[in-house]
Design goal:
alpha+beta, 3-stranded mixed beta sheet, 3 helices, 3 strands, 39% helix
């Protein structure tokens, strides 16, 4: 499965839960996660999408670490079967 399909399925699943999942673009600030998951009740997380088995690059790992230090949730999603689990976690924490 390609990254694009996982990304599409994730965005659809967020929408089904009443949220939106905009593409996150940060000009001049490479390595930021691909999507924002914005769910009801002010629940927010950054999500890095990868093809199955792919890992984030070093710059992406550094950006994820920075976001987590700032108190944000950051997920790396490379398995379509983990979509529901990630959304559940975002909604419950």
């Amino acid at each position: 499965m390609r990254e694009r399909e996982i990304e599409r399925q994730f965005a659809l699943a967020v929408k089904k839960r009443g949220g939106i999942c905009p593409k996150f673009v940060a000009p001049g600030y490479d390595g930021m996660p691909d999507r924002l998951a914005l769910l009801p009740d002010g629940k927010l997380a950054f999500v890095e999408l990868k093809a199955p088995g792919q890992k984030p690059r070093q710059l992406q790992i550094a950006r994820h670490r920075l976001l987590r230090m700032l108190g944000f949730k950051v997920y790396v999603l490379d398995d379509i079967d983990k979509i529901g689990e990630i959304i559940d976690e975002i909604q419950t924490t």
